[in-house]
């Protein structure tokens, strides 16, 4: 019987290293069967470049403006109810804060594998470098490596898993997570307002609760680009997820609505916001396809906000 685990994650092969071996075609490396899924092209994907089919775009400036706030709040409430996803523009997180984090995360993943292993997950924790939610020896695996950290409240941080290279990594994560926390609180207030509740009511549920940051690295897979998934179909169990894509030249995120998959054309500089199960507003499946036949690597940064 395959080993199963309920805490932490079973160790598996490093996908970045596996991709390098398979893409180079040296020694005829093959993609292990555990990473191969059914052909995702078998399901229709609706292009996201049609404005009538794209996930909604919410403007924080309009939410904050007294003249446009009511209309934008209604739009936000509709996006949460009907989609469970929206893109957020003019969010107020400084470009410098985002750029510093993106640069440091890229720098971390560019390091040799042995250097990254210094921050590997341990048996009793999902934090650290590796893969999440590997609970058996025969489950299908995602074509991705990740670094997961508990970032807020600051006293909950386990610094055993916080890289010190690049030298500015910890400082960048701290600044980014602090800015994102305040942004999430603002969004929660407007979400409450949009359904006629007191703005502070929803924020109070999540204020001071756990905030995690997951940094996902999706290497190209030329050998089986249409058979690997960067992130398997799932729903987010938390309250809110703020998703930031490092490259807008490669698209992979899709969301499922009314039985159909919709491609997300991420706007430059925008957050893609997922309303999680904990808010009990909607329950939308999401998937990330790492189908990439070119020499492009994707990274996604996701901040999750939980409730007790």
Q: What are the main properties of this structure?
A:
308 residues; alpha+beta; five-stranded mixed beta sheet; 13 strands; globular
Question: Mind explaining what this structure looks like?
Answer:
- It comes from Urochloa decumbens.
- Belongs to the iron/ascorbate-dependent oxidoreductase family.
- It is a single chain.
- The radius of gyration is 19 Å and the shape is globular.
- Mean pLDDT is 82; it is low at 1-6 and 281-297.
- The strands form two sheets. An eight-stranded mixed beta sheet has the order 2-3-11-8-13-6-5-4. The protein has a five-stranded mixed beta sheet with strand order 1-10-9-12-7, with no helix packed on it.
- It has seven helices and 13 strands.
- The protein has helices spanning 15-24, 60-64, 69-82, 95-110, 113-116, 169-194, 199-206; strands spanning 45-46, 57-59, 85-89, 128-130, 145-152, 211-218, 231-234, 240-245, 253-257, 260-263, 271-275, 286-288, 298-305.
- It starts with 14 loop residues before the first helix and ends with a strand.
- It is an alpha+beta fold and 308 residues long.
